[in-house]
Amino acid sequence: MTTPVLRLIDVKRTYHTGATDVPVLKGINLDLNPGELVGLVGPSGSGKSTLLHTAGLLEKPDSGEVILDGEDCLKLKDRERTLMRRTRLGFVYQFHHLLPEFNAIDNVAAPLYLSGVNRKEARDRAVDLLERMGLGHRLQHQPMTMSGGEQQRVAIARALANRPKVLIADEPTGNLDRETTASVFQQLINVGRTEGLAMLIATHNLELIQFMDHVVTLDDGRLTAFSDPLTSTPA
């Protein structure tokens, strides 16, 4: 039986605005297995980013458990949680946030430099990932000389540099046109599966649902199984 690499157990989160309480997560339960690609969909403002931030140890829930690679992360000190986030999680966002003065290799290698990996090993890892993302011809280029799709592929490679156990992505193709979206997403999946990653990806693009192993919907603070309105049969 496969042991989940990431577990959210009865996770709850409420925001307090003045005298108003806004419950966002109302008891989230989610298991993510190694090599599994789970899509997260839901209306704008439903709390998808809050869920991703909680799963990615960027935000603490009010209650519940976040188990990453067997560790109960909410019981860890801030420094230990930061180390878990740096070594076992990778993040991809809608906007790439690449360092403009660095070329593609050094952008991807940057997390490895920060982790103390020697320069040659870090750059070799970066080159390998960039080539697998179809960017072998753009290794020495800075972000401003690349297309939007190329920049996002560099960002994906950077997220994978530290060999994380889990990749968390928030609208990773939301800033790309339709044709580029399909290409970038397919490369993300191919490299992610080769690396054996568990992947949790939030998207508004229902065309990407076909690539997912499982899809869940977040609405009114709760997760339910996804039902595609184009294929569902009315009761």
Automatic annotation (TrEMBL):
InterPro entries: AAA+_ATPase (IPR003593), ABC_transporter-like_ATP-bd (IPR003439), ABC_transporter-like_CS (IPR017871), ABC_transpr_LolD-like (IPR015854), MacB-like_ATP-bd (IPR017911), P-loop_NTPase (IPR027417). Keywords: ATP-binding, Nucleotide-binding, Transport. One of its GO terms (molecular function) is ATP binding. Residues 6-234 form the ABC transporter domain. SMART domains: AAA. PROSITE patterns: ABC_TRANSPORTER_1, ABC_TRANSPORTER_2. SUPFAM superfamilies: P-loop containing nucleoside triphosphate hydrolases. It holds the Pfam family ABC_tran. It comes from the Bacteria. Belongs to the ABC transporter superfamily. This is ABC transporter ATP-binding protein. The lineage of its organism: Bacteria, Pseudomonadati, Pseudomonadota, Alphaproteobacteria, Hyphomonadales.
